[in-house]
Specification:
- InterPro entries: CdaR-like_regulators (IPR051448), CdaR_GGDEF (IPR041522), PucR_C-HTH_dom (IPR025736).
- This is Helix-turn-helix domain-containing protein.
- There is one protein chain.
- This protein is mainly alpha-helical.
- The chain folds into 3 domains: 137 residues; 135 residues, Alpha-Beta Plaits (2-Layer Sandwich), CATH 3.30.70.2730; 88 residues, Arc Repressor Mutant, subunit A, CATH 1.10.10.2840.
- It has 19 helices and 5 strands.
- Helix 12 links the parallel strand 4 and strand 5.
- Helix 2 crosses helix 6 and helix 15 packs across helix 16.
- It is rod-shaped, with a radius of gyration of 34 Å.
- It starts with 8 loop residues before the first helix and ends in a 13-residue tail after the last helix.
Amino acid sequence: MMPHVPVRRSTVRRLELAAGGLATACLAAMEDRLPWFARLPAEQRAGVLLVTQTGVSNFAAWLTHPGETIRLTAEAFRIAPRDLARRLSLRQTVELVRVATDVFEQHLPPLAADDAEHRVLVEAILRFGREIAFAAATVYAGAAETRGAWDARLEALVVDAVVRGEADDAMVSRAAALGFDPAVALRVVVGSTPADVPEEALGELRRHAHRSGRSVLVGVQGQRLIVLLSEPSRARTPAGSLRGLGRIVDGFGPGPVVLGPVVGDLTAARASAREALGGLRAAPGRPDAPRPVAADDLLPERALCGDPDAHRALTALLAPLHAAGGSLLDTLTAYLDGGGALESCARALFVHPNTVRYRLRRVSELTGRHPSEPRDAQVLRTALVTARLNPDELRNPYNERQDGDVLR
């Protein structure tokens, strides 16, 4: 509500006539008290002058309508140049309002006709300054909401382009506009969308990613959540690159979360997304898999689902054995076919058990898999079947590698 004592029409007229000089005095005070204001381009300072003049006029108009609530304050910002809100931060705008209010307090009350009007003007200036500050906050909140909606659409377009394999300049430009470095190494992480309050869960996911030194792009595609996660620059080992993923994974919904392999930059992210999504489809075949699980740890299940990337990876796993000579492959086949019994394998090959031990140790060195461990034995057995079905690929496991595939 306005003060009970009305302001004379003659006083309002004096306020209207003083608008130009008061706006100029405000700009002089801003330049004197705010070092950054003097560095603004001339068109920006002219925009502030326009807003200030409109604010004085609105203040005078507001005084003539004591029965109305304040409704003219936002007009000062609506007529401002569109670029002004983008150039000035909310903190800077509040500083400008504070300086303008101080100048109003110095120059407007002396225009009052008597002490009663003087008190009315002092109180009105304080209330009007507060409303101006609230109006500024509303303008910036609206701009932030619009920018957030636009950023969310850009983010969805980048993630969709990665999944579809449409790596072009537009995708790179959109990612850069979102603050995601297209040249940084990254991996794709996929899982289910959080069921309860997904906005809060995704907000926590973003915060945990930033705390671990990673950039992140998030895409929700129905019940599927796809995250592009940069590798931290300080990570020197694979273990270091996985640090902090546990809290990020908590932002996914229930069920498996699959990590795609690390790729060199955003344009190669399709390979990581393809393997991660293939792993997500195959993950139900391994219910005891950890969360998160690497796509490479689901090779047998992916191969059973018909994943061509898994077929090539399994064939490539045996390529060093093929290159080293047939004895290693024969020994591995006999060992697995014999149920992992060392003595029966040696008898089947007509060699000493120590020779089998040596060859199995070489298999472990060349493949990184230990035939005596159940999970590794399953991977190696699936690789043997795949190699039998694709003998040409065993001799040259990368001859049909698709563009963007990752060599292991």
